[in-house]
Amino acid sequence: MLKPRQAALVESLLPRIAVPAEGPIDLQALFGHGGPLVLEIGFGGGEHLAAQAASRPDARFIGAEPFLNGVASCLRHVEEAALENVRLWHGDARELMTRLPDASLEVVYILFPDPWPKTRHWKRRLIQPEFLDELARLTKPGAEVRFATDWANYAAWALEHFSRDAHFTWIAERVEDWRAPWPGHVATRYEQKRLGDCAPVWLRFART
Questions:
Q1: Which is nearest to 105 in space by CA: 197, 15, 168, 173?
Q2: Is 150 a known active-site residue?
Q3: What pTM was computed for the model?
Q4: Which of 26, 114, 133, 197 is catalytic?
Q5: SS3 state of residue 138
Q6: Could you tell me whether strands 139-149 and 168-170 are parallel, antiparallel, or unpaired per DSSP bridges?
Q7: DSSP letter at 128?
Q8: What is the torsional sign of CA 123, 128, 130, 134?
Q9: Coil vs helix vs strand at 64
Q10: In tens digits, what is the pLDDT along the chain, a chain of 208 residues?
């Protein structure tokens, strides 16, 4: 159940910054200005998304989150920081992605997605060949996909799938490149709970 302030923001602020529910997404119309486009898939409480948007006022940020509590939490961060460069999608990111223009994304964040740890549930994981095909369509040459997880098997799974895809190259030269977060990272509430089975693994992939 939403707190009164959160419920009020869902009623007042969300309609103003929500991605349209249907049709191809016109980024110029959505934001009213140009600039690099960043997508965060599954933004949780929105603390990372809001911090990144505040640090890059020149860029445009779209966050996708299926859970209303997360959306409401993010709205609070957006309001408190008076952010004008954030748009939200309350729903499955994969549906949103099908409506974005080709080669429109500069950075994609996938931070601590549902690991679906049981073998029989692996087919539900976000990182799948068809998902990577869509990422390849949406990312510009040189764009980055930044993936983090605290489940060892999902880290190996993601690395295997990205490595098999000719559209992406793993950016890593030494152990510290996957043991430490990339510069400018802002810790999420989930990350701080340490609910996985390993220390966080930080993987960066470049669009070739």
A1: 168
A2: no
A3: 0.97
A4: 114
A5: helix
A6: unpaired
A7: -
A8: positive
A9: strand
A10: 899 999 999 999 999 999 999 999 999 999 999 999 999 999 999 999 999 999 999 999 999 999 999 999 999 999 999 999 999 999 999 999 999 999 999 999 999 999 999 999 999 999 999 999 999 999 999 999 999 999 999 999 999 999 999 999 999 999 999 999 999 999 988 888 888 999 999 999 999 9
